[in-house]
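Exam review. A common question shows you a sequence with its structure tokens and asks you to describe the fold in words. Practice with the pair below. Do the first one on your own.
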Amino acid sequence: MKYLFIIVGDRPQAGKTTTGKHIAKVLAIPHMSTSASINARVEKRLGLSAGTVIAARKVEPDNYRKDLIIEGDAMAAENYPPGVACLDIIGDKGGVIEGIRREQELADTIAAALRRGLKVTVVAITRAGNEADPDNTEPGVMNRADYMIYNNSDVASVLCQVDLIIQSVVKNA
């Protein structure tokens, strides 16, 4: 069975990347962030050299955040949302895509994955914290999740929840 896991979250630093990378490692499948599918477009628009956005975000995660959101919105408006762009890169072998923020983008990515014969699982992750620090994720994206992870800031607890999800998905395939 070929899997596509889609990881969504309701705020920055919720644990999307940790969750996505862990699933990819356990199942030996590719991992992509929707940010990766739009970095080059942001760099081109701003006249930056390749890799500038990634390097800047490693130093400070909020660097270029607004630019990434604007470009992601533009891609969605062009009917080629970042999630579908990631799926095109990953291909029919399946993988993990994290960071989808729009309901229509999620629906389009799921539909494209199902056409490729992939088993799709949507995992949402949320964490308690500063409620004034929301992400730009539409609420319907979180509501579409097959599984919900509650991040209490303990990585071991998150990874334990992720392992249970992997076991359940693989068992029910």
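Now try the second one, then compare your answer with the model answer below.
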Amino acid sequence: MKIKATVTNAQAFIKTQEEFGSFSKYIWGFVDGKPIDNKPKSLSEVAATTVISDALSKDLKKRGFKFTGSTVMYAHMQATGMVNDHITECFIRK
């Protein structure tokens, strides 16, 4: 299923890219083009999903993407810099 999803996602990616001019414009539109800085004080304050990751997941699924649940999309948002969830004491935050 994941191999088939890779092909399906690639096709959906191309369609989304054509619609918005780039996939980057599409996905960053969910955060108004600016990273969200949550400034958590501890790891227990870091969410697994948010309203935004829920909306992104729902929209991607509507566009035909597979395996794009809210938790996966929030992890993507963290990994790509759309969200900064480094705790305030983290050396990377500085």
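Model answer, second protein: Strands lie at 36-37, 83-84. Helices lie at 2-20, 23-28, 51-62, 70-79. Full marks require stating both points clearly.
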